[in-house]
Each structure stands twice: as C-alpha cells, then as structure tokens.
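[SOLVED] Need 3D model of a three-part complex

Original post:
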Amino acid sequence: MLARFTAMAVLAGLLLPGAAQAAFPDRPLTIIVPAAAGGGGDTTTRILAREIEKTFGQPITIVNQGQGGGVVGLTSIRSAKPDGYTVGLLFPYAGYKAMGQADFAATDFTPIANFNGDSSALLVGGKSAFKDLASALAALKAEPARYRIHCSGGCGSVWDIPVAGLMLDQGIAVNRIAWIPGQGAATGFTELVSGGVDFQTASLPEAAALMNGGRLRPLAVLSPTPVPGFESVPTTAQAIGTPVDGGTWRAIGGPAGMPDDIRARWEDAIRKAVDSPSFRAAMAKANFGVKWLDSKGLADLMSQHEADTERVMKALGYVK
Amino acid sequence: MVILEDVLGRLLDLNLMLVIAGSAVYGLVLGAIPGLTALMASALLVPIIIFMDPIPAVAAIITASAMAIFAGDIPGALMRMPGTPASAAYTDDAYGLTRSGHAALALGAGLFASATGGLASAAVLALAAPLLADIALSFSSVEYFWLAALGLSCATFVAGPSLLRGLASLLLGLAFATVGMDPVSGTPRFTFGSTNLLGGLGLIPVLIGMFAVSELLRGALADPQAEKAPARIGPIVRGIGPAMWRHRTGLLRGSGIGTLVGALPGAGSDIAAWISYAVARRASRLGRRDDQDGAVERIMSASAANNASLGGAYIPATVFGIPGDAITAIVISVMFLKGINPGPTLFLNDPGAIYTIFAIFFIANILMIPLGILCIRAFGAILRLPAAYVSPMILMFCILGAFSVDNTLFAVGIIGVIGVLGYVMEANRIPIAPAILGLILGPLIEQTFMTTMLKSHGDLMIFFERPIGGTLGVITILAWVAAVALHLLPARRPAGEPALR
Amino acid sequence: MKVNDVFVGLFFLAVGVFVTAYAWTLEPPRHLAYGPGFVPSLIGIGLMLVGGAIGLIGLRTVHADRLVSWPDWSASPRGPLRFLTVPAAIAAYITLVDGMGFLLTSTIIFVAMLVIAGVRPLRGLAVGLLSSIVLTAVFASVLHVPLPWGPLQSVSGWLIW
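Solution:
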C-alpha cells in the first residue's frame, strides 16, 4: 500500500511539478551552516532546526561548509535559489571584506530572524597581575606594544572587534598591540594559560571550565546586563562605567530576493522555535544565550555590525 | 568502591550495550571506506545522539571513532587506500606485507596494536588525566612549532629509495597546504579569485586522490578479468601473541607517544601516527630493519599511536573542556548539551559519569578485536569479487567521501586532478607519502611559526627561550642533522636508509 | 607515463618558480613581521633547489634513457579506455549530478564502467541500479549527506529517514 502510494507520488511529482506549489514547504528544506560540524554555529542551528521541523512538518538537512573560515558557506547561501527552500546561518561577516577575502554585505541576504547571541569577554590567565578591567586598560594605554591579545578565531572577527572598539573609545593605540589569531577559543586558552599571550577575547561559556579551575580570570564581559550563569563576572558598566554590547550573533537568513510571504513563514517558524520551552532548555544546557530579533531588528543589527567593524578595522590598520 | 559500583551499575544497561554495538559496526564500516574518517563518523552521529541519554551519547562517539581509526587500516593494507588519514603513515608497509602474502600479519598487527594503544590510553586517562592535562596546557605555539618540525623529519624515513625525490614530494605537499587563506592574516593565497580554493585543497580529497584514485588508475591498466584476486587472508589471531611480545617496546612506545600527542590540542591521530612511525624507524633496532619484522614493528608502533591518541584527546577535554582534536570538540559540545559540563569540577561533582565514560573506552577497545576480525573477513570477501565490479564501487565511494567532507562538488574535482597527479608521480618514482605528510603538518608548522613571530615581534630567539620548547628544538635540530648526515656518509648508512639520489 | 628525470626536475623547478613568484606578490599586512608570502617563498625556493638537483642528476642519463615512455598499453587491449574511464567518470559526475540527481548519475556511471570493463550490459544495468539504490539509501537517507535528488526532489521528504 505504502509502496503504491509512494510510486504514485513519484509519478505525480515527475508529471506535475506545478501542482506542488500550493503550500510552503512541500519538500525538505536545507540550512547551510558555514561552520564545521560540532562547533557552536552547528550545534545551535541543529537545536533550532529540530524545532522548525515540527512547525514545517518537513525534514531539514543541515549542510556544513566550514572551509575558508565560513566564506565558502556564506557564498553558497548568497548564491542559493531564493525560493525559501535553502536558507543559511548568518553570523558576523563584515570582517572578511576588510581582509580582502570576500565582500559580503547586508544586501546579499534576506534577513529572517536572529536566535542566538553571546557576549565577548576579556580574559587573563590565573597567574596574571591584572585583577580588574580598569588596571588592564591603564596598562594597555601606557605600553600598548608590550601586550599580546589572543583573538580566539581570526583577528578582525566576532570576539576581538568589540573589545578593540572599547579600547579605542578609551584612547588606547590598538594598532600597536599584538593581536594574535588562532583556530578557535581552545587554542587561545592553552596560549593564555601557558603564558604565550597576556589577554584573550572569547565568550564566557567556552571559558567556563577553566574559570572554575582558577586558571582563567574574566576581567569583564561586554554585555549591558550580567550574563545568566556568570553573574559574578562584571559587565563593562560595572567595571569602568561604560556599557558596551558586543559579541557574536547567530541568525537565519536567505539569499537576497526571497519572496516576502515565504520569509514571513520562516520568521514565524523561528519565533515559535525560540519561544518553545524545549529550545530554551536545550540552549541553556549547551550554554548558549537566546537572543530573539525579528527580520527588521536583524537588518538593523547587520548594518550596525558593518559600520562598527569598519570603524575598528580602520583603527587597527587592517584597512588601508 | 562506591564509584566502582556506580560505574558498573551504569554500564550494565541493555540500551547502552546496544548503542555501543551499533556504533561499533557503524564506525568500522565508515572507517573502512576510503575518504570517510573517524571525524566524519562522529559528526554524522550528532543529529542521532542528540536524542539519547548522556552516557550512551558519548559512548556512541567513543566507540565509533575508535573503530573507524582501526578500520582505516583495512583498505590501506589490502588495497593501498588508507581509509582514514591516520592510517596513511604505514600504508606502504602494510600493503607491502600483503603483497608478499602476509595480509593476515599486517592486519592482525594493526588490529591488536590498535586495541593495545586504545587500552593503554584508557588506563592513562583513568589514572592520570588531571596530571597530564597540566602538561598539555604548558604547550604554547613555540612547542607546537618544534613538534611539527620534528614530525616533518618523518619525510626522510618515508622518502623511499631517493632522498631528493622524497623532499620534492614533501615540498609539493607543503605547497598544496598553503593554498587558501593564510592562517595568520587570512590573506587569500593561490586562490585565483575562486571561493572554493579559499578553503584550501582539503586533506581528505587530496588523500583520496593521491592514494585511492591513483591506485584505480594503475589498476585500470591491468586486465580486469585476469587480475588475480588477493589470496585469502590467513588466520589473524594465530601467532599474534608472540608477535606482540616481540614488539612489546614498539607497542608501549606507540601507546605513550599517541596518548601524549593526542592530549595536545591541535595535534590529532594522524600526526600521532606519523611521529610514532618516525621514532620507530629512527630510534628502534627492530623498526629500522627493512624486512618483515621491521614493517610489523612500524605498523604496531604507529597503529597503537593513532588509537591511543583518541584516548589522549579526552585528557584536556574532560579536565579543562579543551578539545584535544576535532572529535573531542564534538564530544564536548555533546557533553554540554547533555549537562555533563567538562572541567576540573566534573571529577568532584560527578565522578560516576566521568569514570563510566572512561570505562567505555575499555569496552570499545576490547570489542574491537572480535568485530575487527569480522570486518577484515568481510572486506577480504568483497575483494575477491572481480575487479570489474569492485572498481566502480570504490570510485563511487571516493566521490561520495570527497563530497561529504564539505558538501561541495569542487572536492570531487580535486580527487580527479590529484589522482592523475599521484599516478604520474608514482610512475616517475616520486613517493606520495611525504606529500601527504607535508599537507598534514604544513598548516600547523606555518601557523605556529607565524603566531610565534607575531608574539615576539620577529625575534627568532623566542624559539629557544622556553624550557620545554628549547629542549624540543634541540632534539628536532639534532634529528634533522642526523638524518642528513647519514645520507651524506653512504658508507655508514644502515641498510634501508634512503640514499640522496 | 614515465618521463626522463630531466623533465621531472624541470617540473618541480617550474612549480618552485611559480610558487616563489606568487609569494613575492603577497604584501605583508602592516602588523606582521613575516607576511603571508614568507613560508610559501621558502617552500618555493626549496622546490627550485630540489627540482634543479633532480634535473642535473637526470642529465647524466638523458642519452641512455628514453625521454618519455608510455605505460604498456598492450598488456590489455582495453587498458587505455579503462584508464580514461576514471577521470571521465569523475568529470561526468560533476557535470550531471546537480541536474539529474545522484541516483540516475550514479547508475549511468556504474553501467558505463561495468560495460567498458567487459560486463554484459543487462547485468551491468542490474548491478549499477542496485548499487546506486543502496548508496542513496545509506548516504542520503540515513547519513543525511545532501546528495541532489534531481527529478525525485519533490518527494525526497519521504526518502530521508
């Protein structure tokens, strides 16, 4: 019976491609993740996709394309057919332009919704002399060339840009500091603990295990409010009286030119997912912050992100 | 004792046993297919285990990755197509044994050494994880640079009969490794405006091309109907006991090197296998020999090392939440997802969970022996089919393997181009193993060198200022000087060392 | 295909020249003591030296050896054809798979390779179709590798487990 049904459906699908346009989505969807399997971008997207599948009633395939630090995956999203069946994970992308790797802009994508955000923090090793943000900033201001700051990932990226922006506002010559790139937060933590670098920019959840062991110390987190689970870590407002909001964000977006009704369907599905207790529980367990922004809010975030990145990259001397 | 009861209680669970058995078979099959790696086997498990309880979820990854690393030896020994990059170091040795009719010895050595290495690293993990994690955390980019440079000296051992040709191959591999974004500034190199090249050529596609596709091309020139099927693989278990005793130092050395290298974040099972191979070749009397015994010694050392490194990688992962390799990066995210937060406190708060995870290592590595033998037998049976049927299947696996790494057709093109190149290289007596070595170590060596220079503002003395780093540096330089000196003094060259030309 | 060592040396020499020349065009960003071209230029110089040495040593044999010797095509009458099948199959896969879907492309490649290797066409078709169905089931349905479905796109929801 099932076989016959399937056979008929195959025939129908082959002969009547137009008849299938009735309701979106009527076939499996794809979310391109410009990161390797197992990382933060991959994990959060899989948690989200599990909820969206329930709403759409269709399986979602996650396609990991982590090569080139995400450039390959983002390019795939940009050049996908804007029919709503292929969308992708967007994250801070403006750094690629300054480095001459790619020229992504907000106009390349259809922003749908933001679902995750984690704040950047400035960390030192457990043996470091710096106990608070103010003294560290004063030292960096006095002798910028003496210090090395690990960016966790590539420099000019999600974690270091907001921190460099904060330092810039404090009048620190950020272009004289040695910013050390790495292959992820973990590579930086070993450098920080072994004394290879003096500071590191990373998210708090990633550093949690080493913080518990007293091997790492957070000086401040770039969040307007204390981060849940890390209430003892001072925000920049508490540390030096300047509120800063900086870090990564993860959003779903499609290629430019997606039809408005289909974009709205996705936005609704993501809103439903983000509001669901099971999504919130999974994100909390995996130590990821939930940050909801609708399509409009995401578009604003993206243009703000591009402007911020350009300002800091210029000051750092990456952009000529 | 309370912990022991707790652990036993958690282990005696039918569901857990089924998960372990299922992921064991899954890992063996994936690892035995050229191009599908232990990492991929683990990554593909994530969407499934996300619905499981914490312990079975982690058990699935541990079992599948251990099995996959071993299973990579099977196609390596029987067809000269390493199933995973971790088997590439000793593929030629194992294939050589197979061709002289000793397939059972090559595979038995690989299987039992894998299990030994895995068990040894599990023991270290259970006894000394916090202590070793401290050592791993004292490594900065200087130490990693020297480690990678030491690894590169392996090239002189896998160079084949001519050192010059081996170096040419190594340099070609290093050149391939520079394609894509530079690891420090992110500047695109050799990309010619192609987005796909921005991500580099990719280790897996190049490995598939160099070993598997080039082997298919060579095989195509022989008559498929007349092609002699490989002889039956003889008894695997018989005689393995005395062999293991004879090579006990190699086994132990490999297990030790593997556990340590695995514990270092950023160096995984493939690098562990190469380093152990080089040490066996250089520093042991048995491993230097060019006969059957020498090959077995090298296979056992390297094969023990790549499985031991899997356990080693869990040392920093469980103690500090720092992944020792890409597989443990996945494990850590799964552990977080399941509420077992890795870190020093895990050993205090939930010792039952952590020691159950360690116990699963023991189970997986013991289970490897019977299942591994079954897998070897099944694979041997497939190979007795006529080549006309086997070749298209292998080619399709190569294509699928290359595609599933990053889901691009570009990688499929790479295996074709590199396959032809590998064929031409071999036909002209340019060995391919050094090129793979260069491709594996190239990114690590460049990235650590450049990062160190950034930190010191260009002062080269930094490479000798730290105690561990300086010591490693001196060892590395001596190893290179010794290697070159031995080539220049042909009279004193031990049998089996490659000559300069 | 085996060529005289002079050509082997020249090949590596040429690759070395190219790598070095390209590396010199890479400007170090202002904050780096050693730029992105540093390591590639070392590799390039190494390739030039090694290639040059291989070529020079090869000069000694240039009169004794043939410059180019082709593989023994005559060992098997269909050898050259089967040799070309491998790259051709890869090229065909890349060209066809997005439009025709994996199942169909894989079947075509299987049948072509089997028939060229001397298997009877009908038998080849059966083996090829069966193998392709198994591969689709394993990779696309179970492992969720995003293989193109081609004409089956609209019903692929039922085929992904």
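Edit: Chain C has a mean pLDDT of 86.
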